[in-house]
Specification:
alpha/beta; 36% helix; globular; two-stranded antiparallel ribbon
Length: 214
């Protein structure tokens, strides 16, 4: 059974089989594909490299050297991917971006279009670093900006470089991060956290469950 993702004004073309995305370590029939279009160039890609399992494959569509990181470009990358590949019914497609630099009106429009196409939302307020910090502790009410959360991570970890994550610090704390983030914003109807928090837990929770079943 194939799942259809509507794309407007797309010229008819033969899509590539999704198994072309899977290397030999994956079961090409059963592997579940998680496609995540991200605002960031490096941090998210590094983080999701922690997930290794023969039953899942994570494809990160990161911002390139053109620096087109605004939500509309993140959505555009996911649209282009779906034009190229045929997907299975249990594959999931995600948009992952931050609230901090983009107006609420712009984000609302992107979220509305994403839901029409059955894309899932994994948005952080104000930034992805909120999700990283939740691996270690509850949020501090005084922290509001991206700089606040980056400084908080440096204090907690001794250093923080978004281009070179120490994955060993995060890999055993993911379930705690999911609990903290979910407790902050448990409403599944929210498109993004209205206060400081992160919906990255939504995709991580699904990944952890997929790994447990494998």
């Amino acid at each position: 059974m194939k799942q259809s993702y509507p794309i407007e004004n797309v010229a008819k073309m033969k899509k590539r089989n999704r198994t072309k995305l899977l290397d030999r370590q994956y079961n090409k029939r059963d592997a579940r594909l998680f496609v995540i279009a991200t605002e960031g160039r490096e941090t998210e890609k590094q983080y999701f490299a922690m997930f290794h399992d023969s039953r899942i494959k994570i494809e990160i569509l990161a911002t390139g050297e053109d620096n087109k990181s605004a939500p509309q470009y993140v959505l555009e990358r996911l649209n282009e991917f779906i034009q190229k590949y045929d997907m299975n019914a249990d594959d999931t497609l995600w948009l992952m971006f931050d609230v901090d630099r983009w107006g609420e009106k712009n984000i609302s429009a992107i979220c509305r279009e994403a839901k029409q196409k059955n894309y899932r939302l994994s948005i952080s307020n104000p930034c992805f670093e909120v999700w990283l910090y939740l691996h270690f502790d509850d949020l501090e009410p005084s922290d509001k900006t991206s700089k606040d959360f980056e400084a908080r991570l440096r204090t907690k970890l001794g250093s923080y470089n978004k281009s070179n994550l120490d994955l060993d610090l995060f890999k055993d704390c993911m379930e705690e991060a999911v609990k903290r983030a979910k407790n902050l914003h448990p409403n599944p109807q929210q498109n993004w956290p209205p206060t400081a928090g992160s919906h990255v837990y939504r995709v991580v929770q699904m990944l952890l469950k997929a790994v447990e079943k494998s």
